[in-house]
Amino acid sequence: MELPKFILGDNTDYPDAIFIIHTEFPRFIINLENDEVEWFEEFDQHDQKELETEAENYIKQATEFYDREVARYDD
User: Fold this and answer.
1) CA 35 distance to own-chain centroid
2) Rounded to the nearest 10 degrees, how much is the dihedral formed by the CA atoms of 19, 29, 67, 69?
3) H or E element in which residue 6 lies
4) Distance CA 42, CA 38 (A)
5) What b/e readout covers 35-63, taking b as 16+ CB neighbours within 10 angstroms?
6) In angstroms, rounded to a whole number, what is the distance separating the alpha carbons of residues 30 and 28?
7) For 53, which of 19, 25, 47, 61 is 20 to 30 Å away at the CA?
8) 3-state DSSP of 26-62
9) What is the Cα–Cα distance from 60 to 46, expressed in whole angstroms?
10) In a structure prediction context, what are the per-residue pLDDT tens digits for the chain, which is 75 residues long?
């Protein structure tokens, strides 16, 4: 099965949270309510340095995805 790069998620147990799931490496979930990130990958020393460099870009892409999805609901 081919998955989209980002998936929008919510859960009634967390009524104020808005979750974006990133399905490609490195896989993670970000809660846009508080910008908390949960990584699903194990990182070694080399990966950690690359992740620190790219994390801001991944989070920006997730936020842009959310903005795009919300704009489509408004249309």
Assistant:
1) 9
2) -70
3) strand 6-9
4) 11
5) eebeeeeeeeeeeeeeeeeeeeebbeebe
6) 7
7) 19
8) CCEEEECCCCEEEECCCCCHHHHHHHHHHHHHHHHHH
9) 22
10) 999 999 999 999 999 999 999 999 889 999 999 989 999 988 888 777 777 778 889 889 999 999 999 999 876
